[in-house]
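HUMAN: Can I see a protein plus its fold?

ASSISTANT:
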Amino acid sequence: MSKSAKKRAVAPSAAPVAVAKPAQLAPRKPKRPNSEPGSKQDSVIAMLKSPAGATIDAMMKATGWQQHSVRGFLAGVVRKRLKLKLGSKKVDGERVYRITGGEKNKSGSGRTFKRRSS
């Protein structure tokens, strides 16, 4: 008989042990707000919500971020995570960004799967 066969034959049958799911182990922390008052993120969003909007240079000066970081913030945080509609237009040869509305219209923008009730 092989070693593994001996172990299977000798091992006593143990009662199944209930394993707690990670969600049951510790209570969930409350979600943090999207931006804390006075944070860099909050200041950039305030600049974008103003009627005049903001240029990338203005956002760079306000936050100390580099140009690629500002662009990443606009695409990743403002558009994707916060789902704000970001518009831009050229004014006097400079691109000005502005939050034009609330949440994006979600119809047709992404796939949604609904279960059929039987």
Observations:
- Residues 40 and 63 are 6 Å apart (CA to CA).
